[in-house]
Design goal:
Layout (H helix, E strand, L loop, with lengths): L7 H24 L11 E7 L3 E5 L4 H20 L14 H24 L3 H5 L2 H14 L1 H4 L23 H10 E3 L6 H19 L6 H14 L1 H4 L25 H10 L4 E3 L1 H5 L5 H17 L2
Antiparallel strand pairs: 1-2, 3-4
Helix pairs in contact: 1-2, 3-13, 5-13, 7-13, 8-9, 8-11
The chain binds heme C (HEC) (2 copies).
The site of one heme C has 25 residues, from helix 6, helix 7, strand 4 and helix 13.
Length: 306
Amino acid sequence: MSDFTHGFWPIYISVITLVSIIGTWVFLKTQTTRKLAPGEKAELMEHTWDEDLQDLNNPLPRWWLGLFYATLIFSLAYLALWPGLGNFAGLLGWTSLQEYQQEVKTAEARFQPVYAGFMKQDIATVAANPEAHAIGRNLYLTYCSQCHGSDATGARGFPNLTDHDWLYGGDPDTLKATITDGRSGMMPALGEALGPQGTKEVANYVLSLSGRKHDARLASAGRQKFAENCAACHMPDGSGMAAMGAPNLTDKVWLYGGSEASIIESIAKGRNGVMPGAAQTLGTTSNRDAKLHLLAAYIYGLSQQK
Ligand code: HEC
Ligand code: HEC
């Protein structure tokens, strides 16, 4: 395969390369013809520096010249055997793609039995295995850390995976489903339906659910609005619904923030956190199912630690 945009360029490059190498050869040859006869002194050049520093015109030592020629021969041999000269593929037929594919094959053959072994065990068992933990950690750092953080404690909008608080559930099967297929949290924008005053009232009711500082009068006005507009997803007591990924509003864990302003923003504009399915991210990489298994086990293990 060639990346050249036009047939002219490979020829252009090849000609310059070959002319340079041959030119260097000719230059070396023509500039090193003089040899000293036995007993002959090297020619003294005319200039003198720093009062007494003189310059002799000695021929280059033979071993030194030999090195020069050796590099020229090496470069020609290299260009003959490996790709490097324009479009010419080289006599050995080496390509970086082939080398990569060979490496992948070797790695697959090496890891296949390891992966197969873990596939036979359930997630809780795999989670307790230190080797599986190390592989899971590498996979996590490659595919998940950009969103959930390298320590998996998350960030605003990206859930902490090390606590016991789950949007969708923390049992092995649910975790595996979340990781494999992804999730999409759908919190509708209710600002218009509730109006600014209504939004403030419900927000204060939500603050009261987790015992945060709130305006009691606003909160009691919000209670009924919560029952009408929110309970379907967050449950009447605000404890959330895993099937919808609707967060528990009565605890101290917040996905988007527990201040009045953040809660008002959640209610007024809605939220739509998207967790991409790792099955798709992993695509056609080898041992995909085993990797999903190990990822689920790694996350399960993290959440079991504390
Ligand atoms: C592009 C960012 C992104 C990447 C990459 C990502 N996640 Fe997520 N993940 C999210 C978001 C956002 C949510 C919350 C979804 C929601 O709000 O409903 C989430 C939710 C989750 C949940 C559910 C948490 C709960 O409380 O139920 C788990 C488990 C999870 N991710 C694990 C992973 C794993 C494992 C990987 C790597 C394979 C990963 N995530 C990669 C953004 C990401
Ligand atoms: C259709 C279901 C649904 C309805 C109705 C709904 N919510 Fe939500 N809510 C969700 C989901 C799902 C999320 C999580 C969004 C995400 O993962 O990005 C959420 C998130 C939130 C959050 C952010 C929580 C956090 O941890 O930061 C607040 C606050 C909230 N909802 C309050 C309300 C209030 C108040 C109402 C009623 C006025 C309401 N919701 C109505 C489904 C709903």
